[in-house]
Task: structure prediction
Amino acid sequence: MTANPQLHADIQQNPRAFLRQLFDQAVQRAQPLHNTPAFLPKLPKGRTLVLGAGKAAGAMAHAVEALWPHDAPLSGMVVTRYGHTPVRPEGVPERLKIVEASHPVPDAAGLAAAEEILSLTQGLTANDLVLCLISGGGSALLTLPAEGLSLAEKQAINQALLKSGANIGEMNCVRKHLSRIKGGRLAAACAPAQVVTLAISDVPGDDPSVIASGPTVPDATSCADALQILQRYQIDISSGVLKALQDSTWESPKPGDPAFARSTVHLIATPQQSLLAAASLAESKGLRAYVLSDEMEGESREVGKVHAALARASARGQGPFQKPCVILSGGETTVTVRAVKTESKKREGRGGRAGEFCMGLAQGLQGQAGVWAIAADTDGIDGIEDNAGALVTPDTLSRGVQAGLRLDEHLSNNDAYGYFQALNDLVFSGPTHTNVNDFRAILVL
Result:
C-alpha cells in the first residue's frame, strides 16, 4: 500500500497512544464472546456439561452462558486465575461455576478445582455433550499431580522450569507427564460422551496439545521426552519422579486411542488473528504493516535485539521494510532468570518476558531516532507482575541515564519492571480475560 502522510500525522504527534491502540485492537479481536458463536455444537440428546481452565476461562464461560439456549440444561465449572473473572454481562443468567486459583505456580485451590472437574465427568453417557473451554494458563490452574507426586514437589518443579529458559512446549511436555488430568486424560475421563473443545491459542504454532497442556487432546510426547527436558535444564527431581518417568508409569494417552473417537477441537482465537487485526488498524491509518510471525520463540532480550536490528535498518532506509511502517510479531519468548539473591539484595528483579524484550530492544536500538515500540502480554499480565508490558521510545536510554539507571544492571537482574517504572513507561491494562500470548509492535517513522 502507499502510505498517506496526512493520515499518520496524529501518530507522529502521539506514537505512544497509537501503539496502545494497536495492543487494544489485538486484545479485542481475541475476546471470547466475539469468537464463540460460530463454534458452538448442536444440543445433545442428553445433558451438556461445561468444563474449562485458563486465563480466559471466566469470559469463555460467560460467553457460553449468554449464547446457549436459556431453556436448555447447562451445568459445569471452570477455573481461572485469581482476579481474572470478568463482571458478568447484564442479563446473562448464572449457570456455570467459576473458581479462581494460582498462576503460574499451582496452589491448593487449583488442585481442588481439578479434582472437582474430574469428578464431574463421572456418569457421562454417549448422549451427553462435554464442552471444554481451554485457554493459556490452564496448565497451572488445572493441577492434579500424578499418583505418588505431591503438590509441593510439583510446585517446585514448575517454579524451576519457569526460571530455566525452557520454552512453552518443553514445559508443557513435563507438566503433562506429571498430571492426572492433562495430556488428554480429561477427554479420556469424559468418554463415551461427545467432547467439543473450544480453545484460545497462546502457543507458537497453535498446537492444541500444547495449549494448557492439552487436557482433551492426544499426547504424542512421552515420559522419556519429559525426563530429557528435566535433565537438559538440570531440574532437581526426586528418585520417585525419576523412576516413574523412566518406567513410563505416568504415560499419557496417545493419538489413535479410542477415547478420542468422539472428541473435536476448534481454535476460536489465535495470535495470528490478533496480529492481523492490529495490522488492519495500522493500514487504516495510512501505515504499512508487516507481520513477521506469530511463532517467535527464544530468549526475550535476544529477540528484542533482533527486532532492533530490523527497525534500525528500516529507519535508515536500508532494511526490508519501507517506512513509515509498523512491524508486528507474536509468539512466546522466554526469560532465563540470571539474578542471584544475596544478603544485600533480598529479591530478584521484577519483570516478565515483555519487559525483558523491551530492555533488549532498547539496548539494540541505541536511541535510534524515529522508532517507538510496545511489547505486552495479551492477558494483561507480564509474568507475575501487575503490568501488561512496556514502551520503548527514541529517548528511553537517555532518560534512563538522567534518572540514574543502568540498563545493563537491570538486564542482569531481570528487572524490567524497575527500569520502565522509573521512566513511567510501563503498560497497564489489567486482566483482559483472553490470552493470545505476546504482542509486539515497532513503529518506524
About this structure: The domain at 32-269 is CATH 3.40.50.10180 (Rossmann fold).
